Amino acid sequence: xxxxxxxxxxxxxxxxxxxxxxxxxxxxxxxxxxxxxxxxxxxxxxxxxxxxxxxxxxxxxxxxxxxxxxxxxxxxxxxxxxxxxxxxxxxxxxxxxxxxxxxxxxxxxxxxxxxxxxxxxxxxxxxxxxxxxxxxxxxxxxxxxxxxxxxxxxxx
Length: 156
Fold this sequence. Notes:
The chain has 156 residues and is mainly alpha-helical. It is 67% helix and 5% strand. It has one domain (2-115). The longest helix is centred in the first third of the chain and has 35 residues, at 25-59.
């Protein structure tokens, strides 16, 4: 992780250096400030759209996992816009634009599905049965595929 951070910092410095060599120091500062201002306006607009989409999907009774993922990506894009540098501005802008955000979301969800085992109950769901007897918890879940009926313990 430290190596990735170091490479990102080197890429940011190289990009700022290259732009400053082409247009000058003050113009480079102006571009960085303009990118932050325009990016924040875009992040505010896309964030509002994403929040409304989550609420609408939840009200309709459907699972809003795509909309929540979009909201997280919009938040990450907004954060990247505020980090000074051209590389982070471009990455943030790509996350704020709907077509590229959809591509990132699909790739991210595919990666999560490969890494997180899924059960019949849905994405990441786990099934277990717990019986409480006289304030004592007895876990009846098992990792094998057979499903025995739960034991019933009767007491006075």
